[in-house]
Structures are given as C-alpha cells and as structure tokens.
Please model this.
Amino acid sequence: MEAEDLGLPPKGGMDLPEDGVDPPEQKISPGCTETGEDELIVALDKQVELSAAQNNGPLSVADGKVDVQEELSEAREESSEKDLSDSASTDNTLEDSCEFSRPLVMGGGPSEEEEVAAQPRPATHRDEDVTAESWRAHRKHVFVLSEAGKPIYSRYGNEEALSSTMGVMMALVSFIQSGDNSIRSIYSDDRKLVFVQQGPLVLVSVSSTLQSEQQLRQELLYVYDQIISMLTQASITRIFERKKNYDLRRLLTGSEKILDRLLNLVESDPCFLLGAVRCLPLQPPLRDSLGSLLQKAITPNLVFSILVARSQLVTTVQEKTVIDDCRLEPTDLHLLLNLIGATSAFQTGEIWTPICLPRFNPDCYFYAYISYLDADCTVCLILLSTDKESFYSVSDCKKRIEEGMRTQNYLQALSSGLKSPSYSVGMVGAPDLRHFIYKPLDIPDNYRQLPQFTSPELEGPYCSESERHRLFDLYHYLHSRIHSTLRPLRLIYHVAEKETLLAWVTSKFELYTCFSPLVTKAGAINILTKLLRWIKKEEDRLFIRYPPKYSTTPNPGKGSKGVRTDGAENGFFGGL
Amino acid sequence: MAQRTGWTEQASSCRDASCPKGSSHIFKVVLLGSSSVGKTSLAYRYVKKDFQDSLPTVGCSFFNQCVTLDAATIKLEIWDTAGQEKYHSVCHLYYRGANAALLVYDITKKESLEKAKVWLSELEKEFLQDEIIIILVGNKLDLSEEREVTVQEAKEFAKTKCILHMETSAKSDVQVTELFMTLACELLKRKEEQLQATHWKKSRINLQETTSHRAKCCQI
Model:
C-alpha cells in the first residue's frame, strides 16, 4: 500500500522563508528514486566533507559568516511535500493489504483543533472510553501485543477493551508475514502507523505528530527495551516458547505507569531523541570530588556507580574492566531513571531490585541499589552490582559515600545548584535565542564515555504543555531531516510560524537552536557564533569531559586533570 | 540457618546511626502480599508516621527501625517487597533468613487474601513453624464499607495455620504501630524462649560426659 496522502506537515508551519538558490539536494533528489540510498548518502557526504575541508572546520568563526552562509544556502529547505514523498518510498507494505487498513485508521481524521482541545487528558488513561472521539484524537497511541494477538499494553484506554483492535493489528502483521515480508508502516491522511516486531512482541505506534517513521520506530524500541529492563529478553522468549497465548500483563501489572511515563518523556525530553545524557551543570572540582568519592566506595562485583540529581547526571564511575569492552549506554541509563522516577520513593528507604540493562545485556539482571541522599529525594545514588547477595555490602558503600558527602558538605553544594533551574538561555547573552540543544560529538577515542547533551530550561513562550509539544515537534522534524536515511542534511534553516529554527551537524557537534521569529539569517549566525563560544567557555561545567573509573592507577584524579588541559581543545573551536 | 547468621552479622556491621548501640537484637521482617494492598503504605506509616499515595515498588525497599520495649531495644530490618508478579521469582532473595513475615491483604479484595494464602504456603516450604513469626494483616480498614473479607473469615484461617491476625489502616493510622509493636514483642519473646531452650540444654546432665569421667575414675 502506498502512502495515500503526504499532506504532512499540516498548516503553514513548514513554509519556507524565501527561495533564492536551487539547493544542491534538489538537484540530486530526482536521481534518488533510481540510485540506491547508499550512493546518495555517499554523494552528499562527499559534498559536505569538501566544504568542511575548505572551511577548515565549519565554524572557524573569525571569518565564519561567509562560510556559514554558504552552507546555509546549500542546505536550503525545499518543499516539505517533496521530502515526505521521498521518505514514504521506504514504505514497503504490500498493495493488497489495503482492505485491512480501514479499521486501523483512527477515526475519520479529526482536525488539528480537535486534537489540541483533547490535550488535557483525564487523569487515568486506563479508564478512557475507547469508542469515544477523544480517544481517537490522541496525538500518539502506542500498543504492545503478543504474537498471539493478546493485548499487553495500550497507552490510552484499557487493553481489554481494545482486544479486537489489536487482533486486527496482529492480522495485518501475520498476513504480510505469510508473504515472507514484514509490515513496517502505513501512511494515512493524518496518521503514521509504525510496526515493530521484537521477538514474540509486536509494537505499534499510531501517530499524528510530525515525527518520522524512523523516530517512531526508535520510540517503540524504547518501549520494548523498557519491558526488557523489567523482565529480560531471555525470560520473555522462554515464556512465549512455553505458552504462545500467555498473558504478559500478569507480569507487567503495576508497570503500566512506567511505560506511560516513558512515552511522555520521549515526547518532551531530548535525551531520548539524541541518545544522550543530560548532565547537571556543575563546577568541575566539585564533580571531580564527587567522582573520587564514588571511586573510593566500592565493593566486589560493583560495576557502575551513578549519582543523579533530578534525573540529570552528576557523575558516574564504572569498573575498569567493564569499560574496556562495554560501557553504560545512554538508553540504559534513561530507562533506569525512568523506572526509578515511576517508583515510590522516600528517603530512608533503600531499594534493592533486579534490573536488566537491555543495551548492555538484554538477557541478564543487574542488581540495583537505589537510595536518595536528601530529604527532598532529588539526589539519588544508584549502585549496580552483579551479585544478588551483596545488598549489605553495597548498602555499606552508600553509607561511606553519604558520610563523605556530609563531611565535605557536598550535598549542600549540590542542592544549592539544584534550587535554581538548570540554567537560563539568557546566560548566553543573545536575546533572540530562545532555546537550544547541543550535543558534542568530539569525544576522544580513549575515553569511551557517555554521549551527552546540554540544553537550557524551557522558558518564554514554551511554558504550557501544548507549546512545549509544538517546539519538540519542530525539533523532531529537524532531527528527522538531519538524520534522514535517504537524504541526510548537515544544516537546516527553518522558518516556522512562531519561531525560526536552525539545526546544524558537524563532525564536532549536533546543534538545534530556536530563535525568535523575526531573527534574520545573519542575526542567527551571529547568535550561533556567540552560543558556540559560550558553550566552549562553559563546557567543563556543562559536560563530564573525562569520566573517572575504578582505577588501578595510583592517582586517577590528577591524571585526568592533566589530560584535561591538553584535551580541552574542543576541536570545533581550534581556530580561536 | 547458617545463611541467617550470615545476614545478621553483616547487618550489624552497618547499623544505623539512629539506633542506640545497645540494641542487641536485629530481626528481619518481610512484608509480602499482592500488589497495591498497602505494603509500602504500612511501612511508610510506621517509619515516617505519614501517609502518601505511593507508586508501585520495584524489587524491594529496605528500612531500619528501632523499637524500644521494656526489656530491650531491638532493631527491625523491614523488607518491603514489590507485590507485582514479575518480582515473585526473586522474592526468595528477600524473605530468606527472615525472622518475621507480614502477609498483607486488602480487606476489600477477596483475591488478595487468596494470594496471601499462597505466600503462606511458600513460606511454609522455606521455614519450619518455629523459625518464623507470621502475621496475617488485613489492610485498608478505612474502606470497611467495601469489605469483602470478614474479620471472622480471616481470623479462622489464621487460627488453623497458627498464625496471628490483625486489621490495620495505613491511611487513617489504625493499629499500624500496634502491629509492629506486637511483632516486636513476639520476636523478643520467641528469642528469649530460644535462649532459654539452649540454656536448658546446657544445664541438663550430659550422660556421655559423665561416663567418660567415670571411665577416667575407674582407670585410677
């Protein structure tokens, strides 16, 4: 089935400012239906590499303006319709499955206004009436079902009530499977339906957001991984091997909230989109001291020590032998933090629970020790051990860390930083800059560290939930254009209805910026320069540049500091 | 039994600062029961003297609480387990070596009592009767209008199994402290009985010893 209509994105939001030069992509794009994807990407890459080489780093700011402008015109946006028709060609669904699409297309296509009206949802989604129009109008539905078509999870409404809908979904999946193929997506007027099959589970997303198929697929994989983090892949496989029509809800009761929370976060927190961790901005000496405190409080079989404050990473320490072959993946950390966030917490309690880190090893459990260090439950210590019997010794590590933090007054230093919001975009000193997301990519090879990103608090017009959604929709859209498998872009200058956005990827960083709508292109570039300079100045505070390990070397703290001064050059600012 | 002493020794090494040093007895108490019957709320009410709507527990939460009785100060290590079925396979990790178990059910949900019975039979497999003190706890007394499990029914069941029974409300703070105090008293009583038993054993005449002594005598 081909996409019926590619009218997305709706409304004038994606209109282009002006159209001067013919963008080079457009010249290539006619060929894109004939030539393979790979070739195209190579061609594009070459082009970009070339220009990067000329510029000696994309933003050698001294004479940067001209260069940036060149790149800007190169990456000029073109008609969004065209773009979407390209991406739709990845849809490899079969033509004769058309008849199945009817029951699946949610509603007669409620208008945008209706959807916005439906935003304030009832407190308990489980009790929602699945036949009501408001249910159909949700921005994004997510369903999880077993291969036997048994409902496992629905984001809205009771799964039980949706068993026939899910039955149809399964019928679709297995019908296409019988033709030795697999269904990936269905495009309707205003919805994208994305299917992911992982082992015995089928995950379906029905979305009216601007997100790309790829992004929706990624989200479904997060949902799958979150389920795995609670049950492990091995046990799910085993369960369904033994009993094909097993009702997995038995094992997931009480966990719906964890998945609900995940899906809300995925839509509003860039960490999932970027696959990177948000660090708590902190003076490097304090972060180093906290790191060495964690380093000292160890016990056999302890693998990771993680200190977070309000879901932002303070510091993490890993066992040295582990870092050699593996590392803590951002996804694993996000899923772990989501799980903790969806659990009752109070300070005196210490949690000891089996947990699987799906990207680290989907079949095995770690034992997580989780404890809050302050009365407000903002500073949280997570210790991951491989030994299920080690509760008391791990708990003892926490006591040592707590003691160390008390004597050095670290906790106070930490929580004083937490009282103020993360940081304001105003600190950059560029009034037209409303928000940005910056992910450094220049990670030294010998430090296989967590990908990180930084982003200021959302302020100004993005205070309400619907405005935040709108902004993240735009970010998602830019991200999908940048990371499109068909035609990846390096730079997008995008004028939306209420703001102007610019996304830019180089070998050193990935950056998304949001400006006030009246900013000029030259103005935006000026701000960008300013922003990059500010980040460069603050990077030691914003990021964990060199994470500590449980080290055998006698003085790891000093060692890493020594490296810092050498390695501090951020690369992209080398020319300054 | 070896396992149990292992746990206890370790526990004493990381004694909570809030507990006076004199607390000589440490008891491990485990809260078991199906999900959302109020295990965490009971623990929260007892430890924090407060009530909050809690989210499901993951794995197990651990608390220390000291109880001062006339005779002694004892420390309760409370293991508040998750009621969700997915954690059942690891629950033995939490209840192993326990000195007491609170089997919590929701008086407004009949099936939660059935689940408590299942837990009981599991504990019976793991423990001998005098190894563990078990209290069947009917929670949510504040919702007694919606009651599905009568006091009599639960009491009778408890009687047949020789376990204690109590009804509580974590929300309106009914009988919660009493529950843990009863438990503490029982634990202490049991401990003293055990001590006496060993004492009694020692004071008995050991025939073998005397025989050997006599044998020595004869040799002279």
